[in-house]
Amino acid sequence: METIVNLRQEVIEPEGIDRSSCIFTSDACQHAASLPDWSQEYLQLSPGRFSGEIVEASTGPIQVFRETLNQCVDEKAHPRPDTYTIGVPIEVEPGGLWQGRALVPDSLMTLNPNEELHFRTPRQSSILVAVVGRAAFERHALAAVGVDVQPLIAQSRAEQLRPDLAQQYRATLNNVLACATTTPEVLEYSASSKAMTEAVLNAALLALRARPSTSEQLRGGHHVQRSIVERARNHVLANPESPPTVSELSAHLKMSRRGLHHAFINVLGINAATFLRYVRLHGVRKELLRAGNDQSVSVVAYKWGFWHMGMFSSYYKTLFGETPSATLRHPPGIISTQQVRLH
Q1: Contact 304, 240 (CB under 8 A)
Q2: From CA 266, how far away is CA 228, in angstroms rounded?
Q3: What percent of the chain has pLDDT over 90?
Q4: What are phi and psi of 287, to 5 degrees?
Q5: 175-217 tens-digit pLDDT
Q6: CA 158 distance to own-chain centroid
Q7: CA distances from 124 to 121, 224, 333 (A)
Q8: Which of 127, 55, 47 is nearest to 93 (CA)?
Q9: Do the beta carbons of residue 25 and residue 52 sit within 8 Å?
Q10: How many angstroms separate the CA atoms of 73 and 287, rounded?
Q11: DSSP alpha helices (H): ranges in the chain?
Q12: Would you say 322 and 300 are in contact if contact means Cβ atoms under 8 Å apart?
């Protein structure tokens, strides 16, 4: 069954729901809300009309998905609680940062349970990810090869695998998605669902054990700069009717304009002034997506600190690929095909 819906809030489904879905989106914020079991915020950083796709399957303690984006976005996200996240890019362009580490071809991207993800995607991004329950993965690793998972993911990072091993991991996740979406009845039988789960656990464990060990620590400077970016974002969102200037933001954060500039360039690839404008433009867009046709574009723009409607419309169209009035008249929807089975 195919439906077109506008997502207004995130729905978290508990473990124990077998599901496969394919979702097409045309807005970064709606895309962030479309990945099941994840709590996410996306900030679009590159200009142009957004297009995204999520192909996802979930069974028992695992979730596998492929996410494809055509714009650079800054992702702040939390997966399902008490899960390990192990991903690999399908295609990678320069500019991607996973937990502060640059993505390269065949990077293995990991995230520890209950840790917040910060992922600045490249302009064109396509990744494959497995999210596995902590307890199930740790039991499997001990039973299968007698190893403890926790030291294998001692630090969430992106580390390059051998190309053949990365391709092997990609192949397993792609096969799971292909089977779950083209023949969803595979999820209806305990034996096939269990075998699919074991295939993902084995592939993730093999990839983790093959990842080169390294004593290199993440640069503390990046974490400090990421913290600056998040504090700035929170301050802007908390004060939409009194948006700060760069100087006011510097004073609020008790740091120099130069230091603020370097933090935003290193973390997001844009300067502080552009960041402030982008956050406010996203605030306007979210309100327009929620509003009815009786809402005034100018009123929402004024609320977020834009006073020159010509400049505002130009900024908005450059970033999102459409005018604010077009967003209000024809809000982007989400095309979703989904198969769900409750245990």
Answers
A1: yes
A2: 11
A3: 64
A4: -70, -40
A5: 999 999 999 898 888 889 999 999 999 999 999 998 876 544 4
A6: 15
A7: 8, 27, 21
A8: 127
A9: yes
A10: 19
A11: 28-32, 134-145, 149-152, 163-182, 190-210, 220-238, 246-253, 257-268, 272-290, 297-303, 309-320, 324-329
A12: no
Please state, in angstroms and rounded to a whole number, the distance separating the CA atoms of residues 35 and 208.
24
Rounded to whole angstroms, how far apart are CA atoms 57 and 173?
A: 10
Distance between CA atoms of residues 290 and 12, nearest Å:
21
Amino acid residing at 91: E
CA nearest to 178, candidates 22, 61, 35: 22
Q: Which residues pair with 337 in a beta bridge?
A: 2, 22
Per-residue tokens: 120: 């600045």
- Token digits of residue 201: 């656990």
Residue with the two structure tokens 């391709």: 167
**Contact (Cβ atoms closer than 8 angstroms) between residue 120 and residue 141:** no
Smallest CA-to-CA distance from 88 within 128, 132, 35 is with 128
Q: How crowded is the C-beta side of 5, counted as CA atoms within 13 Å? A: 14
Residue 276 C-beta-side C-alpha neighbours within 13 Å: 21
Count other Cβ atoms within 10 Å, centred on residue 273.
Answer: 14
What are the structural domains, with CATH classification, of the chain? 2-215+333-342 (2.60.120.10), 220-321 (1.10.10.60)
Query: Distance between CA atoms of 81 and 114, rounded to whole angstroms?
Result: 6
What does the pLDDT average to over 103-119? Answer: 94
Beta bridge partners of 39: 78
Whole-structure pTM value: 0.86
Cα 51 to its chain centre, rounded Å, is 14
For residue 143, what are the contacts with CB-CB under 8 A and spacing of at least 6?
Answer: none
Residue reference for tokens 């809300």: 33
